[in-house]
Amino acid sequence: MYEREAPPHSSKTPQIFEGVFNWTMTYRRDSDIVNGYGDVYKKKDFAIEDFSNVERLSDSLDSVMKTKTKMVAWFVSNCKTKSKRGEYAEELQRFIPVDIYGGCGLLKCGRRKEDELCYEKIEKEYKFYLSFENSFCKDYVTEKFYIILRGSGDYAAIAPPHSYINVEDFRIPRDLADYLYYLHRNETAYMEYFNWRKDYFAMSMVNWLHHASSFCTLCQKLHTDKTEKVYYNITEWFYGEAQCNKGVRSVRIPPYTKFIK
Which of 85, 144, 227, 254 has the smallest number of CB atoms closer than 10 Å to its CB? Predict the structure, then answer.
């Protein structure tokens, strides 16, 4: 079974396939092969000595800070979701400026290479980015989390310490807005959210290295794993009601880690 999307946005596996699948290859961390939208790596454990092509560090953080004159950005095209992220963003806008780009907002980034242009705009102009899941499901983490790093996902299990702000830590949107304003006024506290970049880097699904690694794992298992097994409850395992719940949202702190080309 191969699936990258969360249950509310994927085609449910027909019952006739119960007892057919031998392995699972999904974003879930309990899959036989984990294949999510990205991953975070410790530099010391990675076989790349020169990280100049991994991180966008040409400008010092001090110079970057001078161009960050705006507060919060959000790029979104799917307006109505089970996570009710749109409603949360609207409430947050009552207390702090939130610029919404894409199909659900009034702002645009450009006609060509929109994603690249938009993320460059975030890095240059904004202090915060809303990384809200469209669904809150076990282990599901939006691809934008990794793109900006360089939702119901267990962010603490994958993200470096102090690299994101968990919205669920705040009772109401106003409390989150107050904290973002605190970071806006306190440069020392804000800059602490960049410390993770000294020891970690992240890759998203568009990076050939990350995308290939999962299929390399699959290929290796095909040649080495001779254990026979069959999933008789694949529908309940992936699509069961217990797999999706209230979940977690996060706020990212740009600049982000650049893709490995």
Answer: 227
Beta bridge partners of 153: none
What are the domain boundaries of the chain?
Answer: 57-196+246-252
Q: What is the pLDDT along the chain (261 residues), one digit of tens a residue?
A: 888 777 766 777 667 888 888 888 887 878 888 877 666 667 776 655 555 544 444 345 667 678 888 999 888 777 766 557 778 888 999 999 999 888 778 888 765 445 667 777 887 888 988 877 656 677 666 555 544 443 334 455 556 778 788 887 888 899 999 999 999 999 889 888 878 777 776 666 555 555 567 788 888 888 898 888 898 888 888 887 666 765 445 555 565 433 332
Report the run of H or E that residue 3 belongs to, with start and end.
strand 2-3
Active-site option among 3, 5, 114, 123: 5
Options 3.40.50.11660, 3.40.1380.10, 3.60.15.10, 3.30.300.30; which CATH number does 57-196+246-252 get?
Answer: 3.40.50.11660
Residue 210 Cα distances to 19, 131, 144, angstroms: 30, 20, 15
Buried-exposed string 24-49: b where 16+ CB fall within 10 A, e elsewhere: bbbbbeebbbbbbbbbbbeeeeeeee
